[in-house]
Amino acid sequence: MQVNAAPLAVRPVSGRRERTAFIKLPFRLYRDNPVWVPPLIISERALIDPAKNPFFEHAEMQLFIAWEGGTPVGRIAAIDDQRHNATWGDNLAFFGFFEAETEAIARALLHTAESWARARGREVLRGPVNPSLNDSAGLLIDAFDRRPLVMMPYNPPSYPEYLEAIGYAKAKDLYAWWFDIRNSVNERAQRIIERITRRLDPVPTIRTISKKHFERDIAIIHEIFTTVWKDNWGFVAPTEAEFRHAAKEMKPILEWGLIHIMESAGEPIAFSLTLPDMNRVLAQMNGRLLPFGILKLLRRRRTIDRNRLVLLGVLEEHRQKGLELMLIAAGIRETERLGWIGGECSWTLEDNHGINKGIQLVGGKRYKTYRIYDKRL
Question: What is the pLDDT of residues 355-367, one digit of tens each?
């Protein structure tokens, strides 16, 4: 006798137990995937908690789970960021935290998020962002056999296929670049950097951020970041509360020699922020810090052998001088000093030709692409 499958139902998340089910769903979907890296459950819980994440001071989010009987088989978040729409004059909502076992489940989840967006008067649904472009974003569309680096997403090849079958199209591609430190800074780039240095007067200095004056230096980075990125596609400047929250979250994992501030005549003009690839550690922890996770975290940190250049920005009046090459080279030299094998620079916009050319010039190879999709409602 044939047993009918349990009906599919998409419902809003309600209560702590269902929020836990939302967070833990990927652990089941990816349990046999050696490339996926389980996030820390405590961090994921804080990320979606309006009481703990200052992003929700200007945005609203509704979580949904797709259920088959009592089993969660997919999830999605519908997000309305008023700050984005005010910044860009858009009328759109976002989706994020997308996971689905099948195309039918993906369709049900996205239709639910679309209905939520329409009910709020929005005309476009864009994503994935988790929960914003300042967090992890995009669907991986290639290099599915490569483990993601810290704070970068991962998904199977089926997810882009699901979205495109449902009518979503590319809004923007985001590039990830790989540096093999064993090749160091190539000779051509070194000659260019030396020529740049001779031409500059005064020659900018590069320093690492100060543990003693961490708050001061974070404020400097925040000011440059919001100034430099203001015209980038989709960028919404994080509030001071958001930026300080992110800095507090990252502080325990910082490699202090990998965060640089460039100054000219004593004034900050550029910065770069590189993180050690904590995913090398998280891959062994199954999402848990307790009971012995903190000890494991500290002990296994020594196994880290790569990093991720997350942010690099040069004030507009100091661009076209090659300063970004000097910052990248400084990061490469420090990575080399640490004895690490390489690092990722991610992400850059596909049409940010200046920075993409500079990355290639110092030896970066594009090796991953992430895609933001949208659909008119």
Answer: 899 889 888 999 9
Q: Which of 62-71, 82-91, 236-245, 316-325 has the lowest mean pLDDT?
A: 316-325
Please tell me whether residues 264 and 358 are part of one structural domain: yes
Asked whether the beta carbons of 234 and 132 are under 8 A apart, the reply is no
**Residue 205's CB: how many other CB atoms inside 10 A?**
11
Model pTM score: 0.94
Q: What is the span of the domain harbouring residue 322?
A: 178-370
Among candidate residues 124, 151, 173, the one where a domain is terminated? 173
- Residue-averaged pLDDT of the chain: 92
Identify whether residues 128 and 244 lie together within a single domain: no
162 and 196 co-located in one domain: no
What are the helix (H) ranges across the chain?
15-29, 41-47, 82-88, 103-119, 158-165, 187-199, 214-228, 240-250, 279-282, 293-300, 323-338, 353-361
Residue 3 in any domain: the answer is no
H-helix or E-strand spanning residue 125: strand 124-127
Rounded Cα distance between 171 and 160, Å, is: 13
Residues in the chain, total = 377
- Is there a contact between 110 and 10 (Cβ–Cβ < 8 Å)? no
